[in-house]
Design brief:
- Helices cover about 75% and strands about 0% of the residues.
- By secondary structure, the protein is mostly helical.
- It has a single domain, classed as MFS general substrate transporter like domains (Growth Hormone, Chain: A, Up-down Bundle).
- The radius of gyration is 21 Å and the shape is globular.
């Protein structure tokens, strides 16, 4: 079985890359970064919000899970609908909804209102960000799109690196300052999408059909290549591999600051080192795609991460967990995603030249 052959998919009508602005990839990266930015920059404000509304911080923390729920729903429906009616209308609708909800949060008089508006904000954010990878896939061939995915992910990785620091700094001006930043950010993205970015979905327009949304997802999930369901294996593998990052993000503060007693000064340095390795590996992937078989790159990245995680397991099993040992292992396991995702996205998206929204 070979999946790399799928990269040479049938030709589809595309707009020319010359029609795109020079900062197209920066825009796509900034659009995807809307999600992590509005999550990570917001987290430092949770205690301040609890004090402002005079409620328990656990109630304010519910806005995090509310945001994740709304974001997931927005992405679930936004992708397939963008295949039906176009990328721009979905992106602009999402950014408009995000902007209006952000203003609602700014003028909220209770934490319950913040909960509702935060859900609506996330819904819009999900609609807006889900078109990002489809924008790239619409314009470029699979291999060229893979190179662009690597560039985009390098840009996106800056969000979790700088967002907490930005949120902490803006707290000096009150928690409202963080949401004013979100509003301005969404407004700028919306203006660029309206006036500069062309419509990339050149397929025939259809009316919105929610039933078709589920049909489109089933078409993606059940897609067969040479009689086998190959395509769906890539997002499943990337999701399992990506769990390493999610575990690190949720447990890094406990691991470094509580277990290893790392100071607050050094914690962001150790945290950011992982992001820098991830960015570096994305850069390597960008250079290798087109020269090396993406299938071979994907397999190498997965096997490398497996070896590192296995080594980590042995370190813990034999009570060898020391900071100089753990830090490099975490950097390698997290950084390996920079080798896995660009190749995986190249292979996965190559199966869906006309269903980029549903696939992404």
């Amino acid at each position: 079985m070979t999946t790399s052959s799928a990269v040479t998919t049938a030709a589809v009508t595309r707009i020319s890359a010359s029609q795109l602005p020079a900062y197209f990839l920066v825009f796509v990266g900034a659009l995807i970064a809307l999600g992590p930015l509005t999550m990570d920059a917001y987290l430092p404000a949770l205690p301040t919000l609890a004090d402002f509304f005079g409620v328990d911080i656990r109630l304010v923390s519910a806005t995090v899970s509310t945001y994740l729920l709304g974001y997931s729903i927005g992405q679930f429906f936004g992708g397939p609908i963008s295949d039906q009616i176009g990328r721009k209308v979905i992106g602009l609708s999402g950014l408009t909804l995000f902007l209006c909800a952000t203003l609602g949060i700014l003028f909220a008089s209770s934490v319950e209102q913040v909960l509702v508006w935060r859900f609506v904000q996330a819904l819009g954010g999900g609609f807006a960000t889900v078109i990002s990878m489809a924008l790239v896939r619409d314009v470029f061939s699979p291999i060229e799109a893979g190179k662009r995915f690597a560039v985009v992910m390098m840009i996106v990785m800056l969000a979790p690196l700088v967002a907490p620091a930005v949120g902490t700094y803006l707290l000096h001006f009150g928690w409202h300052a963080i949401f004013w930043l979100f509003a301005i950010y969404a407004l700028v993205l919306g203006l660029i999408l309206t006036w500069v970015i062309p419509e990339t979905n050149t397929g025939p327009r259809r009316s919105i059909s929610l039933l078709a949304v589920f049909r489109q997802y089933w078409a993606v999930i059940s897609h067969r290549h040479n009689g086998q369901r190959v395509a769906i294996r890539f997002p499943v593998a990337m999701a399992l591999s990506g769990s390493v990052i999610m575990i690190f993000i949720t447990q890094s503060a406990f691991l470094y600051m509580d277990y290893f007693q790392v100071s607050e000064t050094w914690f962001p340095v150790l945290f950011g080192a992982n992001v820098l390795v991830l960015i570096g590996n994305n850069f390597i992937s960008m250079r290798l795609l087109g020269r090396c078989d993406p299938q071979a790159m994907f397999r190498f990245g997965m096997r490398f991460q497996l070896l590192v995680v296995a080594a980590f397991f042995l370190v813990v099993l034999f009570d060898l967990a020391r900071l100089p040992v753990v830090v490099p292992l975490i950097m390698l396991s997290v950084g390996s995603m920079g080798l896995i995702n660009p190749a995986g996205m190249t292979l996965y998206m190559s199966f869906f030249p006309t269903q980029g929204g549903s696939a992404s």
